[in-house]
């Protein structure tokens, strides 16, 4: 889906990249101060992004390999080589026969690897452009502070010319941010929809677990003897334990109603912020 999206909007992406290059050129050739600060900060962000990309790329590449390779190795150790695939998929051919199994195995691994690499490339590009625009904002803030110190000290015509230059740079930046938001709004919606589905499924599982305790209580437990009542009491106590779907027992990664509401609140806040930025541009 991301590949199709980039193919459809490749001209807009190209124009966005050209606008960023033009903004860099205008900043470096503007008569405002802190052009060296912008250059150093820009290079620092670029270097940190390069290091981040190289380090994460290593894990992105090896994670599908580590996930897929143990499957045939375990089958081989158990004397059942070619019995399982990393992904259980029904094929219209015998995917367990010699040669065909190996081809199917590598196709599955390459499919997982391609999807991970594609998403990783999209995330890196998304992170890079937003960090670069943060550098633009830092530069405009620093240059405005320096420009404010010149009020009343220099000729009004010089100050006016610098103010107009700063205003043009700011307008170009706002246009870039607006275009960036417009380009990535569908991608953000896809990511959010995926996350919402995960949270909702987690909530449904939690609700089913809570319903289990009610079903146990609704049984005619009062008609059994004391020994069975003790067993039912133990079952009831175990069923009343909350079922939390979480990652590494981290409270912030727990899929429940509270995290769902917090996520919806954050989403609405982001939408409102993006809308305000678009209104400022207009």
Entry summary:
By secondary structure, this protein is mainly α. It has helices at 2-8, 10-29, 35-68, 70-77, 100-149, 156-217, 226-239, 257-281. Keywords: Cell membrane, Membrane, Olfaction, Receptor, Sensory transduction, Transducer, Transmembrane, Transmembrane helix.
Name the poorly predicted regions.
none
* Chain-averaged pLDDT: 77
Distance between the termini: 31 Å
The shape is: flat
Number of strands: 0
Beta-strand content = under 5%
Helix content: over 70%
* Structure classification: mainly alpha
What's the helix-strand series?
Answer: HHHHHHHH
Count of DSSP-assigned helices: 8
Query: What characterizes the major β-sheet?
Result: none
Rg measurement, Å: 29 Å
Oligomer: single chain
SSE blueprint and pairings:
Elements: H1 2-8, H2 10-29, H3 35-68, H4 70-77, H5 100-149, H6 156-217, H7 226-239, H8 257-281
How would you describe this structure in keywords?
olfactory receptor activity; 282 residues; 0% strand; olfaction
Q: What would you note in describing this structure?
A:
There is one protein chain. The chain has 282 residues and is mainly alpha-helical. The chain has eight helices and no strands. The chain has helices at 2-8, 10-29, 35-68, 70-77, 100-149, 156-217, 226-239, 257-281. Helix 5 (100-149) crosses helix 6. It is flat and about 100 Å long. The model has no long low-confidence stretch (mean pLDDT 77).
